[in-house]
Specification:
2 helices, 3 strands, 34% helix, 19% strand, globular
Length: 80
């Protein structure tokens, strides 16, 4: 299986954002994306990170909160 580049997962998320915002099952939730697919959805970032870390290699997934861009608070989190 070929690995998807992180920016491809982000582009996928940005493409789907309007659709996700219109679905109450996703609004304000955290989605785990890998290989340009939504793999799972969680209420908390920590739950999403735990799932993603257990199922994917570093750099092979993206976690994004489904919020309107104007409501989004940006922060950087890194793990060593």
């Amino acid at each position: 299986m070929s690995q998807t580049k992180p920016n491809e997962n982000l582009a996928f998320f940005n493409q789907k954002l309007t659709e996700l915002l219109n679905d109450k099952a996703y609004t304000h939730k955290y989605v785990v994306i890998s290989n340009k697919e939504i793999k799972n959805v969680f209420d908390t970032f920590s739950s999403a990170l735990e799932f993603a870390s257990a199922n994917f290699t570093q750099g092979d997934f993206l976690i994004q909160q489904v919020v309107d861009q104007k409501d989004q608070i940006n922060f950087l989190r890194s793990a060593v």
